From TrEMBL:
InterPro entries: Metalloprtase-TldD/E_C (IPR045569), PmbA (IPR047657), TldD/PmbA_sf (IPR036059). It comes from Clostridium neuense. This is Metallopeptidase TldD-related protein. Pfam families: PmbA_TldD_3rd (PF19289). Residues 224-429 form the Metalloprotease TldD/E C-terminal domain.
Length: 431
């Protein structure tokens, strides 16, 4: 099929093209309590094609593009018609012209994963065992779960020199933990992984059962006001992704971000910890770890922010060309260096610690973040109580000169960084 698509493309009036072939084998399993409810296996193949068409209008040069899918069952005439329609459509897309340089095809190594040692179906019982290892409480546990494990093959072929392929694995477990006291409460968790790490799975379940228990015992919220807030869990990654998004070439070019090279992004007088951001395409156990991006650019570890100063932009070929900066390629994993303050030290003075929200949102354009509080703890200097209800509303731009990063780190969902962050004078709308 690849040769057929290439042959048609090379006979057409197209300036450049890109073909991405993906093949995915998957095992899926659905559980109610500890009983298997349904299993499913799938093998799918896709071909995504992008065509680039150069044209001029009113003395301005453009490079339009159009992306579309070709199904493996299509005959040659159908493929030819689809390609011609999309070349025509690309001629109306007024993207400012950008050069696509010649890229050498790289020899790529497959992602190192224990999942490669056996068939996918052989791993499902092991994942179930890890999932339920710490599910041994009487009043609560896993109510339902879904397990997905994929073996992925990707090949990228371009008119500008790329013909590279690699294999990788990715898994996902979604589960709901419940706890029943006077009433029953539920908490949702999604785990992603690319390697077999049973301890990571079982420890995550243990933590979620504990949080469900604490949520069941949380009866009140704090009074409205400003507090020292300690964020833990998924919100930490969401807040710190602000620096990834605002240093992205596409966002700078589109004026979504105002970050400038050499800028001290936290200001001149920082009282807290300085941000150090690195993009790393090969983080262990991350589903986002890949050797090249979809343009065929080889990916490498790169420092973006050092000691609070923006060193470089990052991103794709097109937007990097517009900013006259070297393209790093699209790297999804990011690393934030930890701070010097331990979580234990963060808790020596009154605080509100928040770990679960019903809908936590981070708007990287404005810097606003927050959500409705599902679970946290309030320490008044003497007593710690679980809390629920109320909402957090804050802006990272107003708080970042006094942000403190924990010395403890976590590695989850393509993020390696502080396990907790401490923020001051954060508004909580409570009772």
């Amino acid at each position: 099929m690849i040769n057929k698509i290439k042959s048609i493309l090379e006979d057409e009036d197209v300036n450049e093209y890109k073909i991405i072939e993906t093949r995915t084998s998957s095992e899926e399993l659905f559980l109610i309590k500890k009983d298997v409810d349904m299993t499913r296996s799938k093998d799918v193949q896709h071909f995504e094609v992008t065509v680039y068409k150069d044209f001029e209008e009113d003395g301005l040069k453009y490079r339009g593009s159009s992306s579309f899918n070709i199904e493996p069952t299509m005959i040659e005439d159908e493929i030819k018609k689809l390609i011609e329609d999309n070349i025509f459509a690309a001629g109306f897309v007024k993207n400012e012209y950008y050069n696509i340089p010649k890229i050498n095809s790289d020899e790529l190594e497959n992602t190192d994963s224990k999942f490669s040692q056996n068939e996918l179906s052989d791993w499902m019982p092991k994942l179930i065992e890890a999932l339920y290892k710490n599910d041994n409480e009487e009043k609560g546990g896993i109510n339902s779960a879904e397990i997905f494990l994929n073996k992925n093959y990707k090949r990228i072929i371009t008119s500008y020199g790329v013909d590279s392929s690699y294999e990788k694995y990715d898994g996902m477990i979604e589960f709901i933990t419940t706890w029943k006291e006077a009433e029953e409460v539920e908490l949702y968790k999604m785990l992603t992984f690319s390697d077999y790490d049973p301890e990571y799975i079982s420890n995550s379940v243990k933590e979620m059962i504990f949080l469900a228990k604490e949520r069941a015992n949380a009866k009140e919220t704090v009074k409205s006001g400003k507090y020292k807030v300690i964020l833990r869990g998924a919100p930490v990654k969401e807040v710190l992704s602000y620096y990834v998004d605002n240093s992205r070439a596409a966002n700078v070019y589109n004026k979504v971000s105002t970050f400038e090279l050499g800028q001290l992004i936290q200001g001149e007088e920082v009282k807290g910890d300085l941000i150090n951001l690195t993009l790393d395409p090969s983080i262990r156990n991350s589903v986002y770890s890949v050797p090249i991006d979809d343009d065929g650019l080889a990916l490498h570890k790169i420092c973006i922010i050092k000691n609070g100063k923006l060193q470089r932009y990052h991103g794709d070929l097109r937007h990097s060309y517009y900013l006259s900066t070297e393209a790093t390629g699209n790297i999804e994993n990011f690393v934030i260096e930890p701070g010097s303050k331990s979580i234990e030290d963060m808790k020596k003075e009154p605080y509100v610690e928040l770990v679960a929200f019903s809908d936590f949102q981070m708007d990287s354009t404005t810097g606003n973040f927050g959500g409705e509080i599902r679970l946290g703890w309030y320490f008044d200097g003497k007593v710690t109580i679980p809390i629920t209800g109320g909402s957090l509303n804050a802006n990272i731009g107003k708080l970042q000169d006094n942000i403190l990063l924990s010395a403890e780190i976590e590695n989850e969902n393509g993020f390696v960084g502080p396990k907790a962050i401490e923020l001051h004078d954060v508004v909580i709308a409570g009772k």
